[in-house]
Every structure is written in C-alpha cells, then in structure tokens.
Amino acid sequence: MKDSKKRGLNTICVHTGEVEDTQFKGAVSPIFMSTSYAFDGVEEKRYPRYFNTPNQAMLCKKIAALEHTEDALIFSSGMAAISSAMFAFLKSGDHVIIQQVVYGGTFHLIAAEFEKYGIEYSFTSSDNVKDFKSLIKTNTKIVYIETPSNPLLGITDIRAISNLAKAHKVITMIDNTFASPINQNPALLGIDIVLHSATKYMGGHSDISAGAVAASKEHISQIWNTAINFGGNLSDQTVWLLERSLKTLNLRVKAQTKNAMIMAKYLETNKDISRVYYPGLESHPQHEIAKKQMKYFGAMLSFELNDDIDALTFQNNLRLIKPSMSLAGLESTTVSPAQTTHALLSENERLERGIRDGLIRFSVGIEDAEDLIEDIEQAIRKTLTTK
Ligand SMILES: *Cc1c(COP(=O)(O)O)cnc(C)c1O
Fold it and tell me: Domains in the chain, start-ordered, CATH in brackets?
C-alpha cells in the first residue's frame, strides 16, 4: 500500500482510516459501540470521551490526510471543535484577534463566554494583514480567521496571516468549513489549526451533526487535554455515518463546486440580479488571492436581487431549491441573511457589513445546473407578476 500521504484524493476519501473487519472480512468498517474496553496495562485507555474508540481513532486519520496534517480529532458539532480548540490554548489574561465576519456561533462564543474567563479579544472587520498587525499585543495568543466568509464570500490572505502570526509567535486558527478540505488546505499555507463544522460538507447530506480539528500531533495533543474535560465526543454510530459520507467528499464537493461556477456566471448575466459574490468570478475583489490559495472556489455564493423583488417571496416561490438555515448538503438551499442570520442587527449595522435586504446566500448542490437556473427564473417571474 502506498503511504497515505501520496494517495489520490478519492482513494483517501474511500480508504484512509478504514477499520478492518478482521473477523468476517466485510468491505466496510464495522462499528464498535462499546463504551467499555479491557484495561490491559497499556498506556492508552479506550473510552468514548477520550476520543479513541476504534471508529473515532481511525476516522481521524482520514481527516488528517485530507487536510495534510499529522493528526485530527472529531467532535459532536463544529462548535464543540471550535470551543475546545480555543480554550485549549487560552487562559485568563490572554488576547485573541478574530474576524467579525466569523460564523455567528463563533462570534457568540467569544462575546458571551470570554469575558467571564478574563480573556481579551479584538474583533476586526478587516481582511487586511496590516490591520491584524496593528491589533497584535504582547498577550495575543490566537489569530482566528474564516475564509471564504459568510455570507459575502470575503477572502483573507491565509499565507500573509500565518506569516504575520509566526513572526509574533501567535497560534493561527481557521474555520475551513466553507471551502472544505477539497477546495482549500490551510495547513499547507502555514496555518496551525484547521477547524470544520462537519455538519456541512464533510457530512454533506444534511443529516449529521459533527465537527473536526486538524493540526500537528503536538497541537492536537494539547487540544485533546482540554477536549476530554469538555466532553464533546461524537457517538460511534455517527462517526461511522461520517466515514460513509467522507467516502464521497471529493466527488460531491467537486460536483457542487462545478455547479457553483456555472450558477455564478449565469447569475451575473441575469438582469434581475444586481450583484453576485463568488470568489471564482473575476469581478470578485479578492479573486487573485482566492486563485492563489484555493484549489477550486467552493460551492457557496451569494447574490443580490434587484430592489423590486422581495427576498422572502422569491424564496417561497422556488420549487426545487429549498430555503434552509444550514448549508453544504447535496440539495441546493438558500437563506436570506437580512431576515435570518443577521436579523438581530439594525438595518444600519447590516448595511455597514454589506448585507442588503435582497441578499440571498446560495449553497449549490449537485442537481443539474439547468434545473437550478430554471427554478430561479420561474421564481423571479412569479415574484414579479404576483406583486
Ligand atoms: C455551521 C458552522 C459552524 C458551526 O458548526 P455546528 O456543527 O453547527 O456546531 C461553524 N462554522 C461555520 C462556517 C459553519 O457554517
């Protein structure tokens, strides 16, 4: 067998980290549901909350291989992964620099919890390295970024951030959920800790809640020390489902990504749409950075409907594409940030962040692009004629 680092992506997805069925020679990994394992004097005691049951331990190898890191851990949700990773490195008096555009749950974790523990933080609305540099203090411990970001698909220069952080001995973390390991591998660009909501592309079928962290053995071991105290491990049944999902990760995400490019180009030509945000388009302000650091441009995009088309009515008129709060499933979904994820902000705060009422975030699935285009066109027609 080839060293798993040299395997192709589809081979890694299907085979790396399989649990061998030594008893019956079945083709797929058996599930080990046991919460109790013999103590045979070895150093490693197996227990679900130690993240080391056979299914957990083996799936981590697949995730590490996908992100080009030495090791990984899987969690019961993206937020369990993110919170365990952050608290593993922080203590009272430390300082974190984080982008304001991060996922809402991450924003709330910091805004609601950090002060209680005496942890300082600076939110930055910038994706400019100079602005990050000006925020670094002697007690800065972590720089945390998310790129592409939600919902406007902003791009931050990953290499520039990791270089800056290294020069100041600061740990870097990235939420790589939107890109997935297929489209972007931040560890290859110098990022220390790569985070995923596996509820999204890794799960991919909108039926699993899970999270993942990929990093060096040393960093993973430090995260593990904290994670076993927080207890956010994933049940082995779900680990198994996640393994099954990951077998098609490359096939799914490639198909979705290809569709997203077709949809982005189409939407740019639609006269009822005033603007399209997709890092793969030349019109995207950070297209050049995206080209440098992403293998492909991902399957998330956003677009703005003209002012005469109501965003909610438009979405209710869609027949195939489902309005949905989550993202990254095989099925195409939309959400209007102004009325949902960003509804608690005032209109001015939303506009400051570039979120207009007609903005639609579009998670592109694997359906045939012609059917998606037709659905959007009929929904626009219907919204305009029934006003
Ligand atoms: C969904 C999501 C999360 C949180 O993941 P959960 O699995 O819901 O805990 C974090 N970051 C991004 C970018 C997400 O989309």
Answer: 4-246 (3.40.640.10), 250-385 (3.90.1150.10)
